[in-house]
Write a structure and sequence with these properties.
The protein has about 450 residues and is an alpha/beta fold. It has two domains: about 130 residues, Rossmann fold (3-Layer(aba) Sandwich), CATH 3.40.50; about 280 residues, Dihydrodipicolinate Reductase, domain 2 (2-Layer Sandwich). About 30% of the residues lie in helices and about 20% in strands. The protein has 13 helices and 15 strands. The strands form two sheets. A nine-stranded mixed sheet has the order 14-13-12-11-7-10-9-8-15, with helices on one face. The longest helix is centred in the middle third of the chain and has 19 residues.
Length: about 450
């Protein structure tokens, strides 16, 4: 299917929390940038009419500190239509088709609903002949393990080919992730260093200083590995490590990342450390005696020519000292210690990408301290630095890409299935869950580090 702009956007589950928190503000941004001028049809079973649906959109904009009287917001409100009905009822899809009119054939169907509804919605879309030239955009989690992900793919592929499926991971819409990718491929001096010849270890840390708050019921059935490692962190890792796009440009990037994720070895209990912050079991919705992990550290290896034998360690956790996400590539020491400094100093070269909450790229080098002798000192060369910008939200970028048929910001089928294959052996009641104090760095995970390496602790 050619990457043409769509005739309309249909949002299923348009009265839910995701729409209120993210979708409506993103749509205003798209209107403001001239990306969205087509009808936006909300479909849900809330007993609402169009006036109530528009009122909900206004509440969403106010919640996000946006002016509902701005020109872009007023235009969006004018584009909105609403169909109230059961997503299991054929009449709902007939009403949706009628609302679109006969001129709308290429539709972006955005499923803001749980995965168990994907089948009935895609079948309903196909029944009113609005699947063939259209696209379907679906939220995570895409499955609950590798088997269910495969089954879900089979269901969606009954009506939509893979090139028409857009699987959302909102981290891929973050501007710092785009900055990371840009730094890799816009500079000739960085990419040649990103391989096993120069890199001795890779660290990824996603630290959150806050707890699960009121999400206890959801989180207790998920845990840190399924919540953020299986999706966000593996996608970020692939953005750092995957081979560059080829002559087809960014269209080949989604396949390149899939290849990298597919090369990662499945986890085993020996290379996973789990933790649970003190007080988690008192959170509303958490089962008594819960063994759900709120912290996880894992060690991965890639069976690839480029990254063979390079340890990859990832840690994620709640109630840690800071909220920050960073990727650190530690380079190998110089081959000969000319100045007799010892490996503790000659192995200090590193490349650090900060992804959240701000954007930063830092190269650590060793220089000579002024004065007599060969006293080394570390210098940080910062070549990207900026606060997280709100001009384009993650969902603004993602929905805009789907409207235009740009798939490189989304997850490919084989990457999703491979990511589940990596984590499946260690999810659930596998291995001990170690208590840790709130505000600490979690259980001791130094055993996952290669000899001579220590965890890099991000600062706030």
């Amino acid at each position: 299917m050619s990457a043409e702009h769509v005739d309309a956007l249909v949002i299923y589950g348009a009265t839910g929390d995701l729409a209120k928190l993210e979708t409506f503000p993103a749509l205003v941004g798209l209107v403001e940038r001239g990306v969205l001028n087509e009808p936006v049809v909300g479909v849900a079973m809330s007993g609402w009419d169009l006036a109530k649906f528009r009122e909900y959109a206004v509440e969403s904009l106010k919640l996000n500190n946006m002016d509902p009287a701005s020109p872009a917001a007023v235009k969006l409100l004018g584009l909105l239509q609403y169909v109230d009905g059961d997503l299991g009822d054929h009449n709902t899809y007939a009403a949706m088709a009628a609302a679109l009119g006969p001129g709308a054939k290429r539709i972006l169907h955005y499923l803001e609903v749980p995965p168990f509804l994907f089948g009935r919605i895609t079948e309903g879309i196909a029944a009113v002949n609005l699947a063939e030239d259209s696209r379907v955009m679906v939220e995570k989690p895409f499955g609950d393990d590798e088997k269910s992900a495969r089954e879900l793919n089979d269901i969606v592929h009954k009506y939509f080919p893979e090139e028409s499926v857009y699987r959302v991971d909102h981290w891929l819409g973050l501007d710092p992730v785009a900055s990371l990718m840009f730094a890799r491929f816009a500079n000739s001096i960085i990419e040649p260093l990103l391989n096993r010849n120069y890199v001795q270890a890779i660290q990824v840390t996603m630290a959150e200083a806050f707890d699960v708050a009121d999400r206890g019921s959801f989180y207790d059935h998920t845990g840190a590995i399924k919540d953020v490692i299986q999706n966000h962190m593996l996608q970020v890792l692939a953005t750092v490590l995957a081979d560059p796009p080829d002559g087809k440009g960014l269209d080949s990037w989604i396949a390149s990342k899939s290849q990298l994720i597919g090369a990662l070895q499945p986890l085993t209990p020996d290379n996973v450390i789990k933790g649970q912050y003190e007080g988690y079991q008192q959170v509303a919705g958490v089962a008594p005696g819960s063994t759900t992990e709120t912290y996880a550290a894992v060690r991965l290896m890639a069976d690839s020519w480029r990254w063979a034998d390079v340890p990859i360690v990832i840690r994620v956790g709640k109630c840690l000292p800071v909220t920050a996400t960073e990727v650190v590539l530690d380079f190998r020491p110089v081959p000969h210690d000319v100045f007799g400094l010892g490996t503790a100093t000659t192995a200090q070269n590193a490349l650090r990408f900060r992804i959240y909450p701000d954007s930063q790229a830092v190269l650590t080098l060793v220089g000579k301290k002024p004065g007599t002798g060969w006293t080394p000192e570390l210098h940080e060369l910062t070549f990207i630095q900026g606060q997280q910008q709100e001009e384009m939200r993650a969902y603004d970028r993602l929905i805009g890409a789907a409207l235009n048929g740009e798939r490189w910001l989304f997850a490919q089928q084989d990457a999703v299935e491979a990511s589940w294959r990596i984590v499946d052996p260690v999810v659930g009641n596998v291995g001990p869950v170690i208590p840790y104090a709130r505000g600490s760095w979690g259980p001791d995970a130094s055993s996952l580090m290669p000899a001579g390496e220590t965890w890099h602790d991000p600062t706030a």
